[in-house]
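[PROTEIN RECORD]
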Amino acid sequence: MTAEQGIVQHGMADAGRDRVGDLVLGAWDAFLAQAEQVDLSAPTRLPGWRAQEVCVHLGVWPDRAALAGLVADARAGGTGTAGDPDASNARVTAAHRDASRTEVLAALARNREATVAYLRDEPAELDTAPTVSTVGRLPMLSVVLGQAYELAVHGLDLASAGAPLPPAPVLQAGLAALADVTGALAAGQHLTAGATLATPDGGWAFAADGDGWTVRQVPAGRVRGTAVEAPADLLLDAASGRTNPVTALARRRLKVHELGGLLQLAPIVSAAPGIPGGPILALAAKTLGGAGGLLGRVLRG
């Protein structure tokens, strides 16, 4: 979604740079601490990717500086085109697969510094300006926050290679970014819908309508309305496709409340098939697929 005419609410961008900065820079600090402790040659749960590839693709290199390109597009009015993230990741990981540990950690530090520089130096009006990300047009500050989702998910990837687990606040920051991007894309399609990403420690809720979208933190406790409920690491794994949400639902590790509300968000997947959370939204359509669908099988089981 963008700062286009008619949109008056911009999710986490409306919370301001201080709040977004706390979330995303905390995620960066935790990921850098993981990277400093992990054996970069260790395999991760991602097929063909060592900890080296996970870290390399999150760094700033002479041939890859993603945030700089997004800022330039925001300044130009969000007129760019989305690249192919898989092809870009393949190029950068191949080019730097033999980079030294010092080089990899320096590349990660450069990306954190690029985020600090944006928050410190760029004009505030750029925060709600549109830029074309890999999942569509989003406000620039939502893209900055989106790093927290990527860092949380890849922090879990590093944990599979022997790094410490990401701290709970980092997982919550990842869920905040997931809620913000989903709300933005829903508003961009003129949907009136929302949901809560609920965990035992609390979570994040978003709501979209004709005025834009809002995001708010919710406390632990009873889950109300449309929601997806699971531990934070499982929610992030399901959203990123690391865990099959259909299987998690069937095993009752993941719960969906008010399926009809979630189904209202499913059209987002058609517009941006690779979006974070896409597997969960696709789950809604499959779950409500009649007596022969997943819900029917679960209830009969």
Remarks:
- Residues 288-301 have pLDDT under 50 and may be disordered.
